[in-house]
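Researcher: We're teaching a course module on how sequence relates to structure. For the next exercise, students receive a sequence and then see the predicted structure as tokens, so they can try to spot secondary structure elements on their own. Here is the exercise chain.
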Amino acid sequence: MKALSIIILSFLHFLSLPSSLAGEASQVPNLSDSLIRMNYQRIQIPCFEVPEDTYVINSQEELAKVFHKRTWEAECKEAPLPEIDFEFYTLLGFVRGSSGCYESKLRMAIRKNEAEKSILLSARINYTGDCMMYTYYIRWCLVKKVPEDYEVNFYLF
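Model: And here is the predicted structure for the students to work with:
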């Protein structure tokens, strides 16, 4: 009974902490009604090695800087970069690793907040177990051109 009282008191104390001290829960963005789901077209860009990171690409020059290292496969020796009309589109993407005992799953959404002039790409990678298998998720999405005065944020968990 004493142990149960201690657990309950600890939990109540945790709930009373300021949100800045409450750990990861304070890092979750507030997905309020002001967010509008954006349509996107997922594209594949094979034959290039890209470091684990997040990317906002607005020109063919930026695309060439990110996709400069080709993979070793013979068919990739001369593989071209896609031609994207950056006047009308922005390329958003990420490379992220995940591990688990079974195949992990990815759920993703892109939302726009016009009031805050921001775009949020959120992706949840579900994995199970603690095995050593490591999988890379590589996602490239074309969205309607992001205005220059907008901020693009990524929330990957």
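Model: If you want an answer key for the exercise: Helices lie at 2-16, 60-66. The first strand starts at residue 35 and ends at 37.
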